[in-house]
Design goal:
Largest sheet: none
CATH class: Mainly Alpha
Strand content: under 5%
Shape: globular
Number of strands: 0
Radius of gyration: 17 Å
Number of helices: 4
CATH topology: Helix Hairpins
Order of helices and strands: HHHH
Low-confidence stretches: none
CATH architecture: Orthogonal Bundle
Helix content: over 70%
Structural class: mainly alpha
Length: about 110
């Protein structure tokens, strides 16, 4: 039980840290929270509700991972390096693709 408690504690600390220090995460969190009620209004059944809510949660998950990559790279050093830039760019691309996926889900369910 202790391990579960501490894992939850550290996860919550990570979430709070992202809210406090990561502007992109805050923006996406607000977007997802604003869209949440519409997911229940727009979706027709459990599968569509899951797709709408899940795509938003996926954006938040990917943004957390991207922020972790950026923090680790920045911790190593501030000098410019091709691989550091590549890691950050790939993390950003992952966030972009998750946003595209969310947009596709919402547009598809809203229009069809």
């Amino acid at each position: 039980m202790g391990r579960i408690f501490w894992a939850t504690y550290y996860s919550w600390r990570g979430f709070i840290s992202a809210v406090k220090y990561e502007a992109a995460f805050r923006q996406e969190l607000i977007l997802v929270l604003l869209m949440l009620p519409f997911a229940f209004w727009l979706g027709d059944g459990a599968v569509e509700h899951f797709l709408l809510i899940g795509s938003g949660l996926l954006v938040l998950i990917v943004e957390l991972l991207n922020s972790a990559i950026e923090a680790a790279v920045d911790r190593i050093g501030t000098e410019r390096h091709r691989l550091s830039g590549q890691a950050k760019d790939m993390g950003s691309a992952a966030v972009f693709l998750s946003l595209v996926l969310m947009a596709i889900c919402w547009i598809e369910i809203a229009l069809f």
